[in-house]
Structure formats: structure tokens, C-alpha cells
Prior knowledge:
Order of helices and strands: HEHHEHEHEEEHEHHEE
Strand content: 15-25%
InterPro entries: Methyltransf_Superfamily (IPR050508), SAM-dependent_MTases_sf (IPR029063)
GO molecular function: methyltransferase activity
Mean pLDDT: 85
Structural class: alpha/beta
Strand order of the largest sheet: 3-4-5-2-1-6-7-9-8
Keywords: Methyltransferase, Transferase
Protein name: Methyltransferase OMS1
Amino acid sequence: MGITSLRRRLAAHARGNVLELAMGSGRNLAYYDWSPITNALEAAAAARDNDDGDDEAKKKTKTKTTTTTTARPAVNTKGITSFTGLDISADMLDVACKKLTKTVPPLKDAAPIVRAASSLAGSDSAGQLSFLSGRLRLVRSDAHHALPPAPPSFCASPKYDTVIQTFGLCSVADPVAVLANLASAVKPDTGRIVLLEHGRGFFGLVNGLLDRNAGKHFAKYGCWWNRDIEALVEEAARTTPGLRIVKVERPKVLQMGTLVWVELKVEENVGKGE
Length: 274
């Protein structure tokens, strides 16, 4: 179906402090650029070695550490500084956690911290699993609820540089409300919301088949595959202050328009002073 290439493209947009909603079993994890996290941890390890070594070793390590630290801002223009993954299913997050520990090398020997996260997500059933002092987090929550802020240790702002979602709008109760919620979590002006969704296509025959089987498909998979994603995005942009559509595409012609690529941003101070 060609979805892998779209996942790679989606992951290439992930930079800085990243929030992924409806992450499921973590199918996007293998395609993210984790080098900023790896580089930062290597620099921290070098600094610790510097404290423990002799004077000559300290000089060499200091030079290496300084070089790594100085180069870090350039690296952070691409790749992930911190990652927060959210899903409503504990089972899916369990699979995603296993993938995360295999995908990010420093996690192989890292012990996770588990704690309740109801104060973050507004749900008594929510929970959070975090690694590397909160740099990597998996949160069980509903996308309709208040979203967890970016980790304060790695981000001066509580908002994210990139918000990503793959095939999530088909399975939520109120897609427009969820889009407004995503807008509340992304940095104004500089941040981006990037979505890969599926729904109604170009052709009446295809849409008729989707409509005819929508109820059965939802009952089996919890997915309304006949939603008009583009119309929902346009409605969210009309009703959410500052939310703007950057791009809407229908990739993969063989999918007959059922795949929808969306990029959104939030403009700051919209409506103020008017």
C-alpha cells in the first residue's frame, strides 16, 4: 500500500520536542531521528568521565565534550529532542514500549519510571511511563482530554515543536474537538501539526462502498473509514482561533484519494487587538 514511505516522510517532519497521538503499537518509532537524544547522552557521559579522569584525560574529554555540546544546536534543528507518545490503549502502549527500547540505543539499559498521570490527562485511568529523566514518555490517555505539556527539563515552553498523528481521526468521537486540542499543544507560529489520515476518497463508487460497510467496519475495528477528513480539518480551522491549514494532499494515487496528508500551524495573537 505504500504506507511505509509516508511514515518515513512523516517522521522526517519530527523535530525538537515531539508529541505523537494515537501512536498505537509504535509503527512510526523506527523512522524517527533520535540522534539529538543520543548525542546529548553521549555528551553527558563524557562529562561524567571528565570528572572521574586524571588531568590529561580531563583535557581530552573536555575538548570532546565542548565540541559535542557546541554542535548540538545545529543537530536539534533536525531530529527529536524529547518524545511523548500518547494512546488510549494500554495494550498498544505496552507493544510501543518494547519497540521504543529497541529503537533508541540508550534505552537498552535504562529503567523506566512508572507513575499515575491523571493530573496530566484528566483521567483516573491514565498512566505514564518515562525514560531518561522524562526525555522519553509514553502516556495512556484520551486525545479529547487535556494533553501533557512538553517535559520542562528539555523545553522552556510547555508546548511542542511537532505534533504528529497517524490514522487517528477515524477512531475518535469528536474529530474537530481533537484537532482543536492538538492546536492547544503546538508552539504558535514555529510549531507544526502533521497528520496522516484516511477517509473518503475521490470517487463516488469508492465512497459508496465505504459508506455501505462503515457500520460493520466500526463494530469490528473501532474505525469510521468513511469520514471526510478534509472537511473536518476545514471545520477545525474555521472554529479554532489561530489554527491555519498549511497543506492538504492526497498521496498515493492507487489509494484513490482515501489517504490524506495534512499540515497545520497555529498563528499567535490572532483576534487580539481587533
